[in-house]
Design brief:
The protein is an alpha+beta fold. The chain has helices spanning about 5-15, 25-30, 35-45, 80-90, 115-130, 155-160, 180-190, 200-205, 210-220, 255-265, 290-305, and strands at about 50-55, 65-75, 95-100, 105-110, 135-145, 165-170, 225-230, 240-250, 270-275, 280-285, 310-320. Helix 2 crosses helix 3 (about 35-45).
Length: about 350
């Protein structure tokens, strides 16, 4: 496992929530030269610590919906499971595909234009692989909060008085927000490579960099683009990833605020999702080991046992794909047609 010093961790910390930070600004914040900052970034890319840079979109603003499907397999051998994972990972509407443990084997998040499109996609999947699906559960997204990996800095957090950064996907459709073909082309280019400069994007699309800059700025102002995150591989820096699902009953506004504040203050919580379905809240946690995760779960249950009716935990072993605006939603009149 690669060894990271404090400067490496500081670089990761700042890129985690702003992967497009100018290299000069990053160098100044981390106390190194531009050349050293670039060298360290490239080294961490080669070591698999930085896998990519994602643009974070709230695509519901322009009319798309998010769905989460939990899948438990039965009777699928190694080859069949790999084929199923490849099918989902390559699906043009798949936002995230994760290989997990516990009661489930695979989780896939789809982004589609509407319920009809999602149903078409899911029925097609069941027609192809239903004989290997022992059980499934569907959750509908209400909102999401992406939280910074502030644990990267450990004891430096209080010393430097760093505030927790986060992005909130409000997921409220805005009928007045324009989203034309050029916007879609820009989104398609930048969605899984936020490291690209506006000039590089412009060259790919055959337009001026001023046009790209103006379009991106507008999408940022409208909150269609929430930010840019370096895709950091937790396993490469000695961390494990777990998911916690919570069943919630009788959550009054004051307790909801307390729960949100607790999750925001928890340094190892990286994502918080509110769903419609059996599991009202999903929490992703990156920790050093299972014992640390269990301590977090116990503390959460102790503090909020009056509103948590049920819970489920499982490890996330591997991310097979991650794209906040899958390419299938960027094609004209896309209706979730089967592959």
């Amino acid at each position: 496992m690669p060894k990271l010093d404090l400067k490496d961790r500081r670089i990761l910390y700042f890129l985690d929530m702003n992967a497009r930070m100018p290299i000069g600004e990053l160098a100044k914040k981390t106390g190194v030269s531009r050349q050293v900052a670039l060298y360290r970034i490239n080294k961490m890319k080669k070591e698999g610590i930085i896998q990519a840079a994602l643009t974070i979109f709230d695509s519901v603003l322009v009319g798309y919906n998010w769905f989460r499907v939990l899948i438990r397999l039965g009777g699928a051998g190694k080859v069949q499971k790999q084929q199923l994972l490849e099918f989902l990972s390559n699906h043009p509407s798949a936002m995230w595909v994760g290989e997990v443990g516990g009661n489930w084997d695979v989780i896939v998040n789809f982004i589609t234009k509407d319920n009809y499109s999602f149903n078409t996609i899911f029925e097609d999947f069941l027609n192809k692989y239903g004989k290997f699906v022992k059980a499934y559960e569907i959750l509908v997204y209400i909102n999401v909060r992406d939280q910074s990996r502030i644990y990267l800095l450990d004891d430096k957090i209080k010393e430097e008085q760093l505030e927790r950064k986060y992005f909130v996907h409000s997921m409220k459709f805005n009928s007045e927000l324009g989203f034309d073909d050029l916007d879609k082309q820009i989104v398609d280019v930048i969605s899984t490579d936020a490291f690209l400069s506006n000039l590089q994007i412009a060259n790919k699309l055959g337009v001026s960099d001023k046009t790209v800059t103006a379009r991106i700025k507008k999408m940022e102002q409208n909150k269609l683009i929430l930010g840019y995150r370096a895709m950091i591989h937790p396993f490469a820096i000695g961390y494990e990833v777990y998911m916690l699902f919570l069943g919630i009953n009788n959550l009054q506004s004051d307790r909801e605020k307390q729960l949100n504040n607790f999750l925001l203050a928890s340094q190892n919580v990286t994502f918080v999702v509110n769903h419609i379905g059996r599991w009202r809240i999903g929490v992703e946690v990156e920790v050093k080991n299972r014992i640390e995760f269990q301590s977090f779960v116990v503390e959460l249950r102790d503090k909020f046992g009056d509103v948590i009716s049920d819970f489920e935990t499982f490890p996330i072993f591997k991310d097979h794909t991650f794209n906040y605006f899958p390419e299938g939603n960027l094609k004209a009149n896309q209706r979730g047609a089967p592959l």
